[in-house]
Design brief:
The protein has about 625 residues and is mainly alpha-helical. The chain has 5 domains: about 190 residues, no CATH class; about 30 residues; about 80 residues, no CATH class; about 40 residues, no CATH class; about 180 residues. It contains 21 helices and 8 strands. A 4-stranded mixed beta sheet has the order 2-1-3-4, sandwiched between helices. Strands 5-8 form a two-stranded antiparallel sheet. Strands 6-7 form a two-stranded antiparallel ribbon. Helix 10 crosses helix 11. The longest helix is centred in the last third of the chain and has 30 residues. The radius of gyration is 32 Å and the shape is elongated. The relative contact order is 0.06.
Length: about 625
């Protein structure tokens, strides 16, 4: 541990030396600009376009005090002529609004409508302040209900009750006004019961908090009014001072909050996803410095000096990574506190993302020799990781496939909603496993010959496979290699499901098949192909044995992860179609045959024709999947 801390302190000193004088001010300026830009984007931008719309107003028309409009005085026929000649985009003769059918005029009309609506709300609010007895537009008290049916709780529809005067009575009995509600999401249709039995619980007996009933007269009306008037006043003051911009908060409406729809500006679409992504940007930023520092020391051969010191490769990697882990954790804590989230949950959600990103950048630094290659593949890694994290989170609350990304958990956290342990591990376990595999691989390849060598990417990857295989225990090594490649294959497959979820079902299944099958066949056969390339397999019998061990290792890891995944996303039609089979022997036989075909073709034709073997094995794998779908699954083509 002492060696790790010494290397970490040295790394911090090197990092601080890179930001001295003007460079430090430059970096701080970039941070400030990024923060300001994020704030402006979230708030849909300030009004930077003054006099964007040209409108004509007659002398008896309304006064317009909005910087977006360039107001011209035009009376009578002159205003209509200016509108026809495109000199103005909108004409307001008195209390009317005249526009053209073209886009520019319609956009102007829409902006003018928003302005008039705001002015009307401000007028009503002034009257409401002066005379509290006057009615204000609709106000709503928000309560969050559990959507899960069958838990013995009340049906959510029954909790809806109109705040009306006493309902008309039938034979002296008060009849609750419950409309016919069609069956939705598994809930039975509610039929009105004009004569409910005494034993049947009424809607008012549910444990869901309801607003107090408004009595037609008497003291019953005062508590309801006093309970919401203060909330309305606060929203009026906020509306007058905010220029209608949305409030910067992740949760749309909290429990028991009083909202006035006419005063609200809804948040921009996917705002929760944007807030969650605010965490990822600093992690990427820190990771860039990590890989740059690694590449600089590798290029200057300082890593070779470290290798000659009495420290292990694991201590070197952890020592250089530890400061950046600390910076990332500090950024996560600060952002969570600023946004008002739960610090513990924030760390639990974003620490695996941080480790995942650092592991990818570690492999980039270890695999590539020049800054040019490192820059290119770092940008590619940013694009891939961003797509993997953000795309599934956009389906939060719509599809359980969103739990592929940990950002979904962050969205739920800021909405005040809970998630299960299974959902947490589905999102984060692959990232933990990728980090563990990356550290294991990094330690095995951390030697001078590999780090300083110039070789094509496929050669360096094959060397990585060779370092992971033990010549004395080839069977166990091949099975273990297939097992540890499961997280990578798992993430690629689930990313393909997310990308294909908006396509037509046949096309989507085709896309999923292509990504999934090719990824699996490469993961199962890559280690054996490396052994063939190095001449370590001499007989077909030994090849078949290794193919079986590879299939067995892959199947074990696949079933463990799918068991976790199916417990969360079993309602998805794609996972029902692809993973619905409960067989255990058939998948093992399929994996074995497909892997054996890939390896036999490669051994027969040579490693240069490895792609042909992958194609042959993929065809057999596809036939098996079609048999599962249309044979066992009963899906009609």
């Amino acid at each position: 541990m002492r060696s790790i801390l010494v290397i970490s302190r040295r790394e911090i000193t090197r990092l601080r030396s890179r930001f001295t004088g003007r460079s430090r001010l430059f970096v701080l300026g970039i941070f400030a600009f990024a923060a300001l830009l994020s704030f402006v984007i979230y708030h849909q931008g300030p009004i930077i376009s003054k006099a964007l719309y040209d409108i004509g107003v007659s002398p008896n028309g309304p006064s317009v005090a909005d910087e977006r409009f360039n107001v011209l005085s035009a009376g009578g026929n002159a205003g209509y002529a200016m509108l026809d000649e495109n000199d103005i985009d909108l004409y307001v003769p008195g209390d009317e609004v005249v526009s053209r059918p073209d886009d520019q005029s319609q956009y102007t009309a829409g902006a003018f409508k928003q302005y008039i609506e705001r002015q009307e709300l401000l007028r009503i609010s002034e009257e409401y302040k002066d005379n509290i007895d006057q009615a204000f537009p609709l106000r709503i008290e928000v309560h969050h209900l559990d959507e899960s049916p069958g838990d013995g709780g009340p049906v959510p529809v029954a909790a809806l009750r109109l705040l009306e005067p006493e309902d008309p009575a039938i034979d002296g009995q008060s009849v609750p006004m419950v409309p016919n509600v069609p069956e939705v999401s598994g809930f039975p249709a509610l039929e009105p019961d004009p004569f409910p039995s005494a034993a049947a619980p009424s809607a008012s007996e549910s444990e869901i908090p309801m607003a107090a009933e408004l009595e037609p007269s008497g003291v019953g009306a005062e508590p309801a009014a006093s309970a919401t008037d203060d909330a309305v006043r606060r929203q009026l003051e906020k509306y007058e001072n905010s220029s209608g911009m949305p409030e910067f908060k992740a949760e749309f409406a909290s429990e028991s909050e009083i909202i006035v729809p006419s005063l609200m500006t809804p948040p921009i679409p996917l705002s929760q996803v944007l807030i969650a992504f605010f965490y990822v940007v600093p992690i990427f930023f820190v990771s860039v410095f990590f890989t740059s520092s690694f590449m600089e020391e590798k290029t200057n051969r300082k890593l070779v000096i470290l290798l000659s010191a009495p420290v292990t490769p694991l201590q070197i990697i952890l020592g250089k990574m530890l400061p950046y882990i600390g910076y990332s954790i500090l950024a996560i804590i600060v952002i969570t506190v600023v946004l008002g989230g739960n610090v513990g949950l924030g760390l639990a959600i974003f620490v695996p993302i941080m480790l995942f990103v650092l592991s990818i950048y570690l492999m980039v630094a270890l695999l590539y020799r020049t800054f040019k290659d490192q820059t290119f593949f770092s940008v590619l890694a940013v694009w891939i990781v961003t797509a993997y994290l953000v795309a599934p989170a956009m389906f939060t609350g719509v599809n359980d496939l969103s739990f592929i990304s940990p950002l979904t958990l962050a969205v739920l956290m800021y909405r005040g909603e809970s998630f299960t342990v299974s959902q947490y591990f589905l999102s984060t376990l692959p990232m933990y496993m990728v980090f563990a595999v990356t550290m294991f691989v990094g330690v095995r390849i951390f030697n001078e010959e590999y780090l300083m060598g110039f070789r094509p990417l496929y050669r360096k990857l094959s060397e990585v496979m060779g370092f992971l295989l033990n010549p004395k225990h080839l069977s166990l090594s091949v099975a273990f290699l297939s097992f540890i490649l499961i997280p990578v294959a798992f993430m690629v497959q689930f990313a393909s499901i997310t990308l294909a979820s908006n396509l037509a079902t046949p096309v989507a299944l085709g896309v999923i098949f292509v990504f999934s099958i090719i990824t699996e066949e490469i993961a199962k056969s890559a280690g054996i192909a490396v052994l063939l390339q190095n001449g370590m397999i001499r007989s077909y019998r030994g090849l078949v044995k290794l193919a079986f061990m590879s299939a067995l290792g892959f199947l074990i890891g696949e079933k463990l992860l799918l068991f976790l995944a199916l417990s969360v996303i079993s309602d998805s039609m794609f996972t029902d179609a692809v993973f619905s089979s409960g067989l255990l022997i058939a998948p093992l036989v399929m994996h074995f045959i497909a892997t054996a075909v890939v390896c036999l073709v490669t051994m027969r034709l040579g490693v240069r024709y490895y792609a042909v073997g992958i194609l042959a094995g993929s065809v057999l794998h596809t036939l098996y999947n079609l048999w599962v779908l249309y044979g066992i699954g009963g899906i009609t083509p």
